[in-house]
Amino acid sequence: MESQASAHQFDLLYSSAYGAILRSAYLIVLDIGVAQEITQEAFLRLWQRRDRLAPDSNEKAWLVRVATNLAISHRRSLLTRWRLREEAPASPDPAAVALVQIELRQMRRALLSLNSRERAILALRFAEDLSFAQIGAIIGRPEPTIRTWLHRALAKLRRRLESSSRTQANAIAKESS
Amino acid sequence: MVEKDDLIDRVSQFYRQAGASLTGPIPRWNPDRPSRILPTFSRRAQVVTAAALVVFAIGLNIVFSNLRHQAAANKPTISPSPSAIQSRPVAHSNLNVSGAMTAASRPDRDSTCGYRAANSRLLFGSDPMGAGSEVVRVGFEISLTANRVGTYDAIYPLDQYGRTALDAVVSSSENSGAGSFWRAVSGRVIVSRTEHLGESGAYGFASGTLEGDLVNQISGGSPIHVSGTWSCVINPEANGP
What we know:
heterodimer; A: mainly alpha; 0% strand; B: alpha+beta; seven-stranded mixed β-barrel; 11 strands; rod-shaped
């Protein structure tokens, strides 16, 4: 009976938190397939330790932390790397379909040129609206370090976007001439 | 502030749209399905792996360093100038001249040789044989084959002045290089042993036998017959390319 109750409780958590965990992972890896696998892994880890969780523990926060760190440290397969380089994936990936606009595609490419830790900090800060302290707690680094990393990530992103814009402007000029 | 510029708006907008596009059914929870993400390394595992790699690299460096030292120790020592440690060989020819004149090698005198590696050419000059107004020096110049040892034709024509491989100079004294030239009309030079030929800075050595009939290049006349054993030392300065 106790086991059944625990399983039911877990199902509820899964249903309510799945979207948020998937989003957390996706905004870092920018690949829906990888994000789904990371989400599954995060829930699996929680499942394996479900009997050891304190009654008042925040499972969702725990899952976000695990998913974020998995997204930062997971080893990309060659296939994933190749897929991420594609301009506009022709997969039925709903997120990718939404990213066909030039601005978003450029941003996606620029973000993918950053390392996963930089992407995680940007996502946690600008998508999840977390404080530096909260980000530091998730990633496991002190707040000043997170500030520095965010500053560097933004500078790097700016350079990449500028470079991308120049390349595009040159291509357009070449086509029109 | 960094976060107040247009870039932040663009990034935020990107995240809003990307996040909003994540719609779809939630897959059924299945704890039996393992995830397909590649295994990750914990920070501790990374540190341990890095440390192990450093230790391995240091160990490898030590091993290779030892191997290099061992190889250097096993390598035969070659001094810059082999002549500095190589004692000069001794060569004594035992040639006899008979016929129009008679002479013989003296055991206290060396014959000398030269060797040119470029064309494998061996030059031999006997000690001055005889005394008084007739001193004869027997010599030959042959191009050695790959095996070096072998039998060579005494009358093999050399390019210039009708010279033959085996010849002799008869002069009026030991100190004079000028005299009458005698060319081989028959005979052979046998090379039976060579050492260090063409080795820069080293003494070379060659030996063998020879025999031949030679006539005066101008007057002809009665031949002289030369035969016997020959051996010679090639001084380092004459044992070159």
